[in-house]
Batch of 2 targets.
Target 1
Amino acid sequence: MRESVIRKHWRQGKPVINGWLSMPGAFSAEIMAHVGTDTLTIDLQHGLVDYQTATTMLQAISTTDVQPIVRVPWNDPAAIMKSLDAGAYGIICPMINSRAEAERFVGACRYTPQGYRSVGPIRAAIYAGRDYIQHANQTVVTFAMIETREAMRNLDDILQTPGLDAIYIGPGDLGLSLGHGAVMDPTHPDTLAAIATIARTAERHGIRKGIHTNSPAFAHRMVSEQKFDFVTLLTDATILATHGARLVGELGALRANTLPPKPLHGGDPSP
């Protein structure tokens, strides 16, 4: 079976740099697969991507060494299993608030006896290898999203779930749940303290930790200060919007220094 880049980096003590795909389309996925991240996550929760399009995006990513992850819409075994069968090497599951929910999530990612995943890796066996079923349980990475007050109250129980590899913090929902707003790179002391608590608790339980960030500075801070093992940085829609706005902004002087209008066809340009 094809080796997991995520697990390889973790064994070597390296953080994984993850990109994020919320725009539907194989070409945009292919472009993002060439920017230099280790992994790419296809977002089926808040992204504008359906299952058929996600499959074509997985195919586009597989033309490179970048490995694909899927964030499923919810803790739904059907969505989890179909994403894995399509070739996802990791699953990020939102809003895990209890040990029971974590067990339901992990069980859907593992074949028996570790879980209840149904056998049928229709594309995964092509992408990963014909011995996929024998090695998938030890290769596929499970990320439970911790992003609510309830999850923090149950954090120790969640992190003791057998087969759970990592947690993934959604700062927006976490800050909103704490009453401090949905900020992607939070600055409120309470939200930052909650992130630090989650990180320390995961470390104590031997669980890897990931987080969604919106800037290189915050991603670097999370790795250097909190020892995060997995950081999401590059989001396709954000790159397009921010870089496009910056480029247009650089032409602002052209708008400020406009020339008088020229007559059309030699006529009077006035109404």
Target 2
Amino acid sequence: MKKPKKPDAKATAAFDKISVDELLKRALTYKSEAARWKVVAALHRRDTRETLDRSISLLQSPLVRKRALGADILGQLGYGKTFHNECALALLKRLKFEYSPWVLTSIGVAAGHLNDPRFARPLSDLAKHLDRDVRFGATFGLLCIDSPIAIKSLIKLSSDKVNKVRDWATFGLGSQHEKDNPAIRKALKARLNDKHYETRLEAIAGLAQRKDPTAKAIVLKWLMTRKRVPNIIWESAEDLGLDPKGIRTKAGL
């Protein structure tokens, strides 16, 4: 199942002795996204007041790439714990004025790492944005927010025209949220025949966690008829109280 990626400490250890100013300079000049994110991950580890202040100041820049960098850092500064409230407040304030799809996406993803209920309303508004990346950012931000507004938005996003958005929204509804009601089950069942493979699997997993009979029938059929079974189906079988190894042995697989 999907899990938000955490910075690789070993990959960023080489940056630990470099100043914040130099790290910011590198992050703004690297052309490779992979290289940029290694520096951003190093700044996530640099949980100091200096890093916080510099990142917040970047949000006020007239340059889009600087504002996006500020949001990318604030989302996991101290891995989202050291300056949680300061980071959340700065990002919420920026959301009121931001217009760039790049920055809005970064703020949405940052909110997903902060997991703060104050983002529920503004991210729900972003979920209606015309830009697909912004909608994805909103989806990621809403994944773990436990509020009726967030769940309602994820239900809507689970039928988005973009595969990535539907996939993550379905993951959020099915596996990240523990709520169980007819609206959630209906949304998950609507994705069981989705054209996107990963989205279908997330729908099965979400229903399995809720012990839904529909999921049980699908999981049993998968275990009894397919040579290759993805991990998420094995996990779903266990959630349903099934014995996947025993079932496959009886089926001769």
